[in-house]
């Protein structure tokens, strides 16, 4: 299958970085060229993204790493997500007048895990420290950067949210206006915070002035977080989850992420003759969407903090269980389980491979656009709303409890061949991430696409983008054709076309390692502002 691509696959031999913003890709590439390794480059690129993509990520968010260490010949996974405040509970929120989990504001904020995750990864694998790696981010925060059309649109959409807090409005609505594309946006408070972290490391964030500013801001807005919550935070090295797909090994993060869901979907779909069904056929899309629905029932039933609730992970990713689920799919008719929860979810995904073969798959997020809508006063740090994933249902596994990690949509991934990384990939997209992982997997393996083709191919996503959407809307890009959309509707899907290259489909990045030829092939999603750069 050959498609006319909007941009070529990037090819290089020494190293490669793929991110959703070109300034971050350049910063990561420079770190590699200066002698840094893939972890160094991933952190410097992520730090720049917290400045130039503030609607998608922030120092006030969470981060997850998959790291291939070629010296050991093994994968390492780092969970850098934060926990709810120790005083958080269903009773506390009910007493505050809430009947459902708040989606924005102070009660939706969990302890930010990003800075600790950066430092933890660098302590184990890095060659540079935060003092060096944060300098490009500091420069963009202090001197400013040109606002892209995507960021302008995000600020315009979030304006009512940002106007609810003076600190957020000052930072993103200079002189009370949405900046135009090309305007230079400066964030001096964020530059000062980055300098403190560069000088003192993670302690500058979790203790001292920044921590006090976070707590004071949240308390002012009714939140429950304390300095003890911040100082007690830790990142955790965890064992990655794996399954096989047509002889390859697909690797994801374990709970509290939805990596188990991505593996379930791959297992279910592996039992279909995907290549014979054909790329973009309504029959294939239908089967994949139905696999998603079944896997998401399990996700919403089980996935939460495994330290607090036992999760039957091995059963969920077993091939036998996938066969059982596959038999439940009607090949001609859509199933309608309970209504999907509203989606959304703004995130960054990036990947790096260096000259020595170290590979990093990194995802970082504040959850929804501009997170909680709160900026910690005087710091420039946007605070996440990851706690919005909790529920106030006392019988649910993912119920709000003290010092608990919520279910996370964030999932960096790798695809291994013969025990070594073949493709490093991932995407933003909230509840759509596992669905995009599946489509990229099929594009690469079943349809033989090269990286940029796999990312630019039209995509679909099942699930509500807003509370006003139908219970099971299926968004589908126009590249599939009207006949496909009509056939899906006849099968019972609420299929609705989007504009081409819709952000609803996520922003995927990918690096493929061609060991036979000794080259790297990188791709970045035209749905974002990024590029894959190598040398």
Task: Describe the overall structure.
By secondary structure, the protein is α+β, with helices and mostly antiparallel strands. 36% of the residues lie in helices and 19% in strands. It is built from 20 helices and 21 strands. It has a 7-stranded antiparallel sheet. A hairpin with a 2-residue loop joins strand 14 (413-417) and strand 15 (420-427). The mean pLDDT is 95.
Give the topology, please.
Elements (H helix, E strand, L loop, with lengths): L9 E3 L3 E4 L2 H12 L4 H15 L9 E8 L4 E7 L9 H6 L18 H12 L4 H4 L1 H9 L1 E2 L2 H14 L3 H7 L11 E2 L2 H13 L2 H4 L2 H12 L6 H5 L4 E3 L2 E5 L2 E5 L6 H12 L3 H4 L4 H21 L10 H4 L2 H8 L19 E8 L5 E9 L7 E2 L4 E2 L30 E5 L2 E8 L5 H13 L5 H6 L3 E3 L10 E4 L5 H9 L3 E4 L10 E7 L4 E6 L6 E4 L1
Parallel strand pairs: 17-18
Antiparallel strand pairs: 1-20, 2-10, 2-21, 3-4, 3-11, 4-7, 5-6, 8-9, 9-14, 10-11, 12-13, 14-15, 15-19, 16-17, 19-20
